Amino acid sequence: MDQPRIPNSLSKVSFSTLLEIEDPEIYQSDLSQEVFEEITLQRLQIAQSRFNNLAVLNSNLEKIELIDVVFTNCDFSNSDLSKCYTNRVRFEGCKFLGTKFPESYFNHTVFNECNLSLSMFEGSMQQTVTYETSNLEGADFYQQGFKGVAFHGCSLESANFEGTLLKGIDFSSNDFAQLTVDLDKMKGATISEEQTRLFINKLGIKVK
């Protein structure tokens, strides 16, 4: 996992200054303590920057590009991040309730202690991505391209992995009683002994 490459010296800027720019971009900047709702800011480019306690809610951020960025305690709930691109990005304690990420590309990206309940990733590619102790209840991973993806200590209750090849995915440290998967795409995945009953039931096998 490559870490974000961010210089020690960053300029203080306001997210609000981007709203009037035709081709908005943020470079080597430090942003914090701002709240926005129902804004449209497409094709935003952000590089080598840090965000703290920023909330962008119910907004359109389609095709946002993030390279070498750390987000801490930020909230993007119910926003549209369709076709986004991330590379060397960390999300620490962030909220993505109902956030849309369809047809996106994630590379060397970490979600640590984040709330991604009901988030939607359908049709995305994820390469070298880690989900650590995060809430992914009801998250939709329909038809993902997974390569080097890891889930550690997450809640995956009622998450959907239909159409997704799960070879190499280790579910054993994660919590769920219901999980939607294609059993023919589970070959090469790892589950705990306690989780075997769920998959046996999906096969219609009764255990006495």
From TrEMBL:
Pfam families: Pentapeptide, Pentapeptide_4
InterPro entries, per the entry: 5peptide_repeat, PA_immunity-related
Gene3D superfamilies tied to this protein: E3 ubiquitin-protein ligase SopA
Species name: Vagococcus allomyrinae
Protein's name according to its UniProt entry: Pentapeptide repeat-containing protein
